[in-house]
Amino acid sequence: MALQPDTMLELALPGTGLAHLAAFQIDPHIIAGRLTSMLEHFQIDRFVDVQAVYLGHRGTLSARIRAVLDFLKKNVCIGPSQLSGE
C-alpha cells in the first residue's frame, strides 16, 4: 500500500527519509530550510498520473464540479477517457 502524499511529506520533514513530491508541496519547505532537494540528477521531466475523485450524487454533475473537471482537463493534461462523467 502506497503512502499518501501528505504522509510522505510528514515523514520527510523530520528527516525520516526521502520523498518524491510535487514542487508545490515542497517548495515552501525547501525555501524555509526544512527540506533539502536531493538526487536532482534522477529527476525526470515527464507527466505523472493525476486522479480527480468526486464522491457525490449519481446522475448529472453540478456546474461547479463540471467547471473543476473542465479546468483540470485543460490545465493538468487529463485525457477525456480518464474523466468520470464524460
Span between N and C termini? 29 Å
Order of helices and strands: HHH
Number of helices: 3
- The share of residues in extended strands comes to under 5%
| Rounded Rg | 17 Å
Helical percentage: 25-40%
Please tell me what the overall shape is.
elongated
What average pLDDT do the residues reach?
75
* Low-pLDDT segments, ≥5 res: 78-86
Which class do the helix and strand fractions yield?
mainly alpha
Largest sheet: none
Strand tally, please? 0
Describe this structure in words.
1% of the residues are buried. The two termini are 29 Å apart. The model is unreliable at 78-86 (pLDDT under 50). It is elongated and about 45 Å long. It is an all-alpha fold and 86 residues long. It contains three helices and no strands.
Identify the notable features of this structure and list them briefly.
86 residues; mainly alpha; 3 helices; 35% helix; 0% strand; disordered C terminus
Describe the structure concisely for a colleague.
The protein is an all-alpha fold and 86 residues long. The chain contains 3 helices and no strands.
Write the layout of secondary structure elements.
Elements: H1 5-12, H2 23-31, H3 63-75
